[in-house]
Known about the structure:
Helices cover 35% and strands 21% of the residues. The protein is built from two helices and nine strands, in the order H-H-E-E-E-E-E-E-E-E-E. It has helices at residues 2-15, 21-70; strands at residues 73-75, 80-82, 104-105, 123-124, 127-132, 143-150, 159-167, 173-175, 179-181. The strands form three sheets. Strands 5, 6, 7, 8 and 9 form a five-stranded antiparallel β-sheet that branches. A two-stranded antiparallel sheet has the order 1-2. The longest helix is centred in the first third of the chain and has 50 residues, at 21-70.
Amino acid sequence: MKKTQLNRKVDIVQRTQGFTLVELMIVVVILGLLAAIAIPTFSQYMRRAKTSEARDALAELYKGSVVYFSENHYNSSDGKIYSLVFPDSSSKQNPDPVPKGVKVKTTWNFEPWLSLNFQEVGLTYFSYNYLSTGATIVGQGANFTLQAKGDLDGDGQTSLFQRTGIVSSEGEIEASNLIETDPLE
């Protein structure tokens, strides 16, 4: 009689030491569902974080354009002082070509970046471009366009951020809203 009770206790102890296959499969399914939800959400969060670089840089470039436009500039080639002008356009993008999903080292030691006091530090996800009409006569539609292009995930499809400013007939700069084309690709 005592032997059967002892066997029952041993059987109970042996059954409670570990997980069944069904319990393990349930845990695996739950972890798979969590990963299926978390990974795309995290990827989208990272792309949104990367786009903040372009928005911030275009805001700084816009401010630099407004300040440059309001100051007087001496031209050493003809000895004249010009006011109400934009820096000359940059035909060189930084960097060229558009980065593909990774940050790249950039250089900002040429015009118009120097005139705009734009010194983006370190590595960037975007290529920047500044286009302007240069010297202006108030009321004749002088303008500038700021662009940031980047391929955030390296798939060949680019994001484009663009902002323009145009000189009104009163000599004030009227800005457009930031235009975002495929910001998260």
